[in-house]
Amino acid sequence: MKILLVFDFDNTIIDDNSDTWIVRCAPNKKLPTELSDSYQKGFWTEFMGRVFKYLGDKGVREHEMKRAVISMPFTPGMVELFNFIRRNKDKFDCIIISDSNSVFIDWVLEAAGFHDVFDKVFTNPAAFNSNGHLTVENYHTHSCNRCPKNLCKKAVLIEFLDKQLQQGVNYTQIVYIGDGGNDVCPVTFLKNDDVAMPRKEYTLQKTLSRMSKNLEPMEYSVVVWSSGVDIISHLQFLIKE
Ligand SMILES: [Mg+2]
Ligand SMILES: [Zn+2]
């Protein structure tokens, strides 16, 4: 039986947020105020749809967006971590659950040659339309009230585990690697042997430490990381047992 590694993308795999990074393609590298003010909480995909339409209307082409996206830096140690996972692929299955979009994640994995490391990528589906606008859709609908309308990462994780179980695939443990507020919901699903790995000093880590101070029940263990190399050390420890 393998260990399942679940990765967030923005600020975890890459050291920035792809949705805000792409704004550097806009004229003067910023959005008009009425556009940036148009975000409504929970409706991120709709907001990004308007941003991509604006970029398209301003003549920003696919290759320029691609160049910008693949220039985003990886988080320190992530390249080493993915090479480590590749060498130990018999011990790990590896998925991404992200609120970015399929086009950006494909570009990054393809440019760095890391497609083979990941078994599945769950994210908002995106494509360029005939006008050259990048369009993005909600990943799914769900009934979780703590998550944005387009994506509950916990629902995705549960559905993936169910599908795997139907194929006869069970995991010894889950290791969840993330940074953000939308990683809290899937982490609360983790059980006894599972490990939550929040990035040091980011929202997920702050939230988990507040939860533990409030003595909220947490069955899983928490291992904080600042670099992918810290994650390698912990994975080495897990597979040695
Ligand atoms: Mg993130
Ligand atoms: Zn949720």
How would you sum up this structure, described in words?
The chain is of the alpha/beta class and 241 residues long. The protein has a domain at 2-15 and 73-123 and 147-239: Rossmann fold (3-Layer(aba) Sandwich). Helix content is 39%, strand content 17%. It has helices at 18-21, 33-36, 44-57, 62-70, 78-87, 102-112, 153-166, 184-187, 203-213, 228-240; strands spanning 2-7, 92-101, 120-124, 126-128, 134-136, 171-178, 195-198, 221-222. It has a six-stranded parallel β-sheet with strand order 3-2-1-6-7-8. Strands 4-5 form a two-stranded antiparallel ribbon. The protein is globular, with a radius of gyration of 18 Å. Zinc ion (ZN) binds at residues 144, 146-147, 152, 154, 185.
Biggest β-sheet: count, sense, barrel? 6 strands, parallel
What is the correct CATH architecture of one domain?
A: 3-Layer(aba) Sandwich
Query: Span between N and C termini?
Result: 13 Å
Uncertain regions spanning at least 5 consecutive residues: none
Number of strands: 8
Amount of beta strand: 15-25%
CATH superfamily of one domain: HAD superfamily/HAD-like
- Helix content estimate: 25-40%
Q: Given the structure, what is the number of helices?
A: 10
Q: What is the H/E string?
A: EHHHHHEHEEEHEHEHEH
Structural class of the secondary elements? alpha/beta
Oligomeric composition of the shown chains: single chain
Radius of gyration: 18 Å
Global outline:
globular
CATH class type of one domain: Alpha Beta
> Average pLDDT value?
96
Major β-sheet strand ordering: 3-2-1-6-7-8
